[in-house]
Amino acid sequence: IEKIINASSNEGDLVADFFCGSGTTLAVAEKMGRKWIGSDLGRFSIHTTRKRMIGVQRELKKAGKDFRAFEILNIGKYEREKFLTVNENLREEEKRIQRVNKEKEFIKLILSAYKAEPVDSFNTFVGKKRDRLVAVGSIDTPVTNDFLEKVISECKEKKITKADVLGFDYEMGLDFSARGGSAFGGERTKNFGLDIQSKVIPREVFDKKAVEKGQVKFYDVAYIEVKPIIRGRGNAKEVAIELTDFSVFYNQDNTGEVEDKLQSGGSKVVIENGQVIKISKDKQTGIISKEVLTKKWTDWIDYWSVDFAFESKKEIVRVAGEKIGEEKEEWTGSYIFENEWQSFRTKKDRTLELTSAFKDAQKSKMKIAIK
């Protein structure tokens, strides 16, 4: 790769790899002083590449060489595009009708994948699965605190005790701290006798075959707990972030079914109540054994990072203007997360720092984001 880049480009040129895999081409390009763009459909690929590029930057910094910052951008919600777009050639009323029909089609798809039946006569609930009512968040925006408050209000008003909330994304800052499940509001909902479970809609809902075979799994929302550490006073004040807990409660695969189908001498890893478990079947005796691989909550984490000034960089996009060929910039309402500090595991070093470096905190109020 070094020979190819050297023969076909000069220092400062742009190298692009649109199937970047583990990021080898990008790493070589960075070391050779080239600009680069990488993309991949696999999330794990991008995660691996990110760690690799940070490693390259640390090497360059140690050697006293310059390096450029990089951003990770998620371009578009491809699977949802069908339900987000409307025919712009239609009249306003026709557009509205098309949006309503697409929303109904979307809800029907989600309920089918969740194996729930549609229901009427509710404000927030659209389905029912056994003894639990089901609410579905918007297709293009995260589930918000306001939406969940409406769910709770309807539960209290209509004496509903069990409900599930399904969403592609969840707004930052929601309280998922109830032990034993991702129940919104923690003790507050328990005091009202409410059992509200929040689950993530997986991308597999758009795979027709997976839905028909019942292979789509809706996982409970995982949550992190952090603690700010503040030292100093006035202009000398500093803040660091300590990661104190990461909680997951979901299940992947049915343990009983895996044990029944397991061949002698074989093994399979499953997730049961938030624990990664290796199930093995002895070749000689046929005895089933289980080994818990996640000994503590930190075993779940491979990488975490902190943005100490989350609202400092607005997400700006270019959109078509009123005139042909005209473009204008608009704020999406979101912010770009910048990795100001991060800790991650590598093959050689499996340790993970749980407390970030200290950062100046002279402002009276600052929003810190953790990923």
Automatic annotation (TrEMBL):
Top-level EC class as recorded in UniProt: transferase
Entry keyword set: Coiled coil, Methyltransferase, Transferase
Boundaries of every DNA methylase N-4/N-6 domain copy: 1-43
Keyword Nucleotidyltransferase: no
GO CC annotations on file: cytoplasm
MF term (GO), any: DNA binding
Coiled-coil residue spans: 83-110
Matching InterPro entries: DNA_methylase_N4/N6, RM_Methyltransferase, SAM-dependent_MTases_sf
GO annotation, biological process: methylation
UniProt signal peptide: none
UniProt-listed SUPFAM superfamilies: S-adenosyl-L-methionine-dependent methyltransferases
Family per record: Belongs to the N(4)/N(6)-methyltransferase family.
EC code: 2.1.1.-
Name recorded for this polypeptide: Methyltransferase
Source lineage: Bacteria, Candidatus Roizmaniibacteriota
Keyword Heme: no
